[in-house]
Design goal:
mainly beta, globular
Length: about 70
């Protein structure tokens, strides 16, 4: 569904990181549940924070990858 390389920005520490998604994966699920490799925070797990934070890391880029079946 969202196959390709996605660049996300952590909502907590503002670091950029990249995820590669396959055919049946959705970026919205990863942006909400994948921990930041820099600070290891998951946005969905931050429900008791003092300051309200967004529900997912910010999606800031996408690059399509070639389908190996073609």
């Amino acid at each position: 569904m969202d196959r390709g390389l996605w660049t996300l920005k952590c909502q907590r520490c503002d670091e950029l990181f990249t995820l590669e998604l396959g055919d049946n994966e959705r970026i919205i699920e990863y942006a909400r549940n994948h921990p930041c490799p820099s600070c290891n925070e998951k946005p969905a797990a931050d429900s008791d924070a003092r300051e309200p934070v967004g529900q997912w890391h910010h999606v800031i880029g996408f690059r399509a990858t070639k389908d190996p079946r073609r």
